[in-house]
Design goal:
This protein is mainly α and 312 residues long. The chain contains 12 helices and no strands. 77% of the residues lie in helices and 0% in strands.
Length: 312
């Protein structure tokens, strides 16, 4: 066999070995990613199972009708009542206030960063948003209690020390980076050709942003807003510190209320005996919160599929 033939055979062997090594690496990466996905599924089922046992035990002692229709929540009193609505209304009241703050500011920031900001401005604003997102929620809670509420009292004297207004306002500030970041990603995913086509037809920059980019990214924007809502519904420390722990069936943002997460914190840190009906309410409320956030995420998925735009 000639030297050229030997060299060609050696190169073919090396190429075959390289392909085998690459295939093995891809196989390992695929297994690793599948394991990560499976871990999230297993974790979800583990959470459901951990909630299910005591939740079923709770409903063996408390009527489902009373739980779903009652407007009094006093499970730790001598005459306990188990109507969940005071906790649900407080949760959605603080979340609605937060979304009223986060949505307009978050969308405005996302439109500016995506369509109007210079590279230098973007390099300054993005890190500041990330810093805002990284502040611990307990700090936000004390800020709402010690700064925002006294400030609001200057305009609204009747506001209580614990109220859902200051908690919702500060929670909205906390959520702004989530709305801005996810919405900007949706805007950046819009093909450049759509913008160039609009500019070619003589459209102004704000017309391109609002009439071309925003409608094209509508599914991503909707998903971002619903994920932000899920974040607001599940927030704990801000509402526990600033909104109070008084389960009252009201939509008045100036009085103390107790959200579902704040109630769970209240009972978890108290002297409630293990296995008592008060202890089991933690799991019933947690299961209710799980169902609500699951429903929000499910609706988010349906909206994304409904308004998704496909570009070739």
């Amino acid at each position: 066999m000639s030297m050229a033939a030997l060299s060609e055979s050696s190169n073919a062997g090396l190429e075959l070995q390289r392909k085998r090594t690459g295939a093995l690496g891809e196989r390992l990466i695929s297994i690793l990613l599948a394991s990560a996905a499976a871990l999230s599924v297993v974790t979800t089922f583990a959470i459901v199972l951990s909630l299910a046992g005591d939740t079923i035990a709770f409903f063996q002692e408390v009527s489902v009708i009373e739980y779903l229709t009652g407007t009094l929540w006093t499970p730790l009193f001598s005459n306990p009542r188990f109507g969940i609505w005071p906790l649900i209304t407080a949760t959605f009241l603080t979340s609605a206030i937060a979304m009223l703050v986060a949505v307009p500011f978050g969308l405005a920031i996302a439109v500016y960063l995506s369509e109007f900001a210079s590279p230098r401005a973007r390099s300054l604003i993005k890190p500041l948003l990330e810093v805002l997102a990284g502040i611990p929620t307990v700090v936000y809670g004390y800020f709402a209690l010690t700064t925002v509420t006294p400030f609001l009292r200057g305009f609204i004297p009747e506001i209580k020390s614990f109220n859902s207004l200051s908690a919702g306002l500060v929670m909205g500030v906390m959520i702004i980076p989530i709305v801005a970041s996810l919405t900007e990603d949706a805007f950046n995913a819009v093909p450049r050709g759509l913008r160039e086509g609009a500019y070619g037809l003589g459209a102004m920059r704000h017309e391109v942003a609002l009439r071309v980019v925003f409608p094209a990214a509508l599914s991503g924007v909707a998903a971002a807003l619903l994920l932000a809502l899920s974040r607001a519904v599940g927030e704990t420390m801000i509402v526990a510190l600033a909104a109070g722990q008084n389960p009252t069936f009201t939509l008045d943002p100036l009085v103390p209320v107790s959200t579902m997460t704040a109630y769970i914190v209240q009972v978890s840190l108290g002297d409630t005996p293990y296995g008592s009906i008060g202890y089991k309410t933690i799991f019933a409320v947690g299961a209710t919160l799980f169902v609500i956030t699951f429903a929000i995420n499910f609706v988010s998925t349906l909206i994304v599929r409904r308004f998704r735009e496909r570009y070739d």
